[in-house]
Design brief:
Number of helices: 14
Number of domains: 1
Protein name: Cytochrome d ubiquinol oxidase subunit II
Number of strands: 4
Strand order of the largest sheet: 1-2
Structural class: mainly alpha
Helix content: over 70%
Radius of gyration: 21 Å
Strand content: under 5%
Keywords: Cell membrane, Membrane, Oxidoreductase, Transmembrane, Transmembrane helix
Oligomer: single chain
Order of helices and strands: HHHHHHHEEHHHHHHEEH
GO molecular function, one term: oxidoreductase activity
Subcellular location: Cell membrane
Organism: Ancylobacter vacuolatus
Shape: globular
Largest sheet: 2 strands, antiparallel
Distance between the termini: 52 Å
Length: 340
């Protein structure tokens, strides 16, 4: 582990927190529009599909800004980690990016296509589902660990392809579908909102089951994670996390039952953040689990400071722009309305 003092010690911690925030923002913000795409084939009509797409039209491309910040931040602040993680997870990264490309092209072309609209519908739904799936696979491949020798990736191209990673992939698809459904509850009116509320009530227990499976699988399969969660005093500090998850899930269910529009969305965001916190607790301070920490993989302090100065100025601009866009396009989308 890195031994140092002053700025050299806490700079990697600052950058790891910035990356964590960027990933969390991406998962929440791009999660609901990927989730909407996952639910796309279940829409009752083309009119409902138009309504679903209009609910995310002002936001979806801006949401992916956080993916760029996460990947770029990893490269500039932790180049050693980037040089190891990317070769280890190269294939799922490429599959995810290709899926996002298909989804983005379909989003732009679908509303102007007439004879080929059904093909763009398939590309949009398929791209959204595969992007979500491979994001989960990336998460699983990262959590289970990467083989490192002499500060370089020493495994094979398919080391990530394990049952655990595949289960994580399906879990993220279910999770994104859930947040997409509560987004539609909040942002649409009429039949689309009614059907989305019913789907959210079906998806909530599915997501809880996946969370329970992964929460049990990780400590059983990876002793380092079991030690983090089940040794004192961590056990007492972390015990509220699963309890809060259950309480919040029950609250989301009740809010859906009582017909609330906004509260289920923010409740599901809370569930995502609790799960994300659990993953962070299981991994930190390792940026290349289970061997290299944030200090061991960090760039030179001068490089970190240089990039941090730019980030400090740009991050409020990005946050302000996002807040403005979400405020400007607040309210519900009715059938027949759109932003195209």
């Amino acid at each position: 582990m890195f031994v140092g003092s002053g700025m050299e010690w806490y700079l990697p911690v600052i950058w790891s927190l910035l990356l964590a925030v960027a990933i969390a923002m991406y998962v929440v913000l791009d999660g609901f529009d990927l989730g909407m795409g996952i639910l796309f084939p279940f829409a009752a009509s083309e009119v409902e599909k138009d309504q679903m797409m209009s609910s995310v039209a002002p936001f979806w491309d801006g949401n992916e800004t956080w993916l760029v910040l996460g990947g770029g931040g990893l490269l500039v602040a932790f180049p050693l980690a980037y040089s190891i993680v990317m070769p280890a997870l190269y294939l799922p990264v490429i599959f995810m990016l290709l899926a996002l490309v298909f989804r983005g092209v379909a989003f732009e072309f679908r509303h102007v296509a007439d004879t080929s609209r059904f093909l763009w519908n398939i590309a949009f739904a398929g791209g959204s589902t595969l992007a979500a799936f491979f994001q989960g696979v990336l998460l699983g491949g990262f959590v289970q660990g990467i083989k490192v020798e002499n500060n370089a990736f020493a495994g094979g191209p398919l080391d990530w392809l394990t049952p655990f990673a595949l289960v994580c992939g399906f879990a993220v698809v279910a999770g994104y579908a859930l947040i997409g459904s509560v987004w539609l509850v909040m942002k649409t009116e009429g039949a689309a909102a009614i059907r989305s509320r019913a789907r959210a009530k079906m998806l909530l227990p599915v997501v809880l089951v996946f969370m329970a499976i992964i929460s049990l699988w990780t400590p059983l399969a990876f002793p380092r994670i079991a030690e983090r969660w089940f040794t004192t005093p961590n056990l007492f500090y972390l015990a509220p996390v699963p309890l809060l998850t259950l309480v919040l899930a029950y609250a989301v269910w009740r809010w859906l039952e009582k017909g609330h529009d906004n509260l289920p969305f923010f409740g599901v965001i809370g569930l995502f953040l609790l799960g994300y916190f659990g993953i962070g607790v299981s991994i930190f301070p390792y940026l290349v689990p289970p061997s290299l920490t944030v200090w061991e993989t960090a760039a030179a302090p001068a490089s970190q400071v240089f990039m941090l100065i730019g980030t400090i100025f740009m991050l409020p601009v990005i946050l302000g722009y996002i807040a403005f866009v979400y405020w400007l396009f607040r309210g519900k989308v009715r059938e027949g309305e759109g932003y195209h």
